[in-house]
Protein: Copper chaperone PCu(A)C
Amino acid sequence: MSLKLTIPAKLFNLGCLAALLFTTSAMAADVMVHDAWVRAMPPSARALPLYLTLHNGADTPVALTAITSADGRVELHQSVHQGGSIKMQRVEQIDIAPHAMVSLAPIGLHGMIMAMSRVPAEGESLQFTAHFDDGSERQIEAKVIKGPAADASGASGHEHHH
Structure:
């Protein structure tokens, strides 16, 4: 003897939609952003570096595909050693392995804020949105400081110029 349960189609579709929404919000919650800061530069600067740490708490990889801001255009860059000097190379995305952390730090991966309407002063905070390949976003607040010195960013404090 077998029992046959039937679920009305509308209820089934609603359950599937709820499961999808729950899964999407769980994915978005798995990426955390820590220790964001922007290097303070003179008012004549044409670009400012953005540094932060990304932590992927998920069981699947995720990639940072863009950072946006009302304060200027942000490009993802990587420092590359070539012929005795350091050059900047644009990257399309920054991959973060499952349960891994990636630091955007001086002389490494970083964001570059360009086409700014003005150069922010030391002590100001700038707002950014990090965009990931799974469709999730993270809001970021980054303080403008001279350098990491003894702060919690974990960055090395090396000078960085474009």
Remarks:
- The beta strands are 31-39, 47-56, 62-68, 73-82, 85-90, 94-96, 101-104, 109-114, 125-132, 137-145.
- The chain is about 15% helix and 45% strand.
- Residues 14-28, 149-162 have pLDDT under 50 and may be disordered.
- The radius of gyration is 20 Å.
